[in-house]
Amino acid sequence: MRVLLRRAITGVVYVGLLLAVVFLNTDAFDFLFMGFGFACLYELNRMNKIKDYPIYLAYLLLWWLYVYFLNSLIAVNILLAITLAVNLFLLYRLLTNKSFVFDKVLRFIISLFYIGGGFIFLRKAPYQTEGFVEFIIAGFFIIVWVNDSFAFIVGKYLGKRPLFKSVSPKKTIEGAIGGGLFALLAAYGVSQVSNYSDFDSYLSFTQWFGVGIIVVVFGNLGDLIESKFKRTAHVKDSGAILPGHGGMLDRLDSLIFAAPFVYLFISLCNYVS
Question: pTM for the complete prediction?
Fold first, then answer.
């Protein structure tokens, strides 16, 4: 119960901070997520005992270029293709139970686009229309947070069957189903708030439901991929900055892995409409 309470308090503060920054201004949003990306990159390299310092410069350069300069459709689609390719490669290694030990070049590419690409498309998601649409990213946060929170709660009290025992023995099928159902309810709630308030997200109910499905599927897979990194490194958490949650990467793994897929989905919805 104490662990659950500590996680709940940390989660509320964390989500409150994110939402406050989202609705504050775009500069604060950009700066916060650039910092989150740097922290996640640091945790990934530290838990794998990697000292590739140029990766941090490459991340900052990639962020600077794609946030402030390279906004053409071709440039963004190139980055999206590379990021999705890296994510699908990690997913293939996870599902085929292959090692997450990589050579130096591949390690550099994976770190840069798994973390850097994920955060860049997390930042780009609310810019799908003209200007910054706060409710797109706020709704995305809420759905991910609900999925993660209820997967933990349902799994803790009702979970019996492991979801992926070789990677994360404590994650259960019951937890994943429970988190998914509540996440889809959250997607419905977000769509209703968007429709009947001043917070226009430019997304329909069907589109929000699609975002919810992507979060459930790719959010859980992203969580398992980060667990695979931790198991390879023989560590329990990526860090200890968030009481009850571990490190920053532990908290944001679902978000950054799902972000490129959510961005692609919203882009396709805008294209066909």
Answer: 0.90
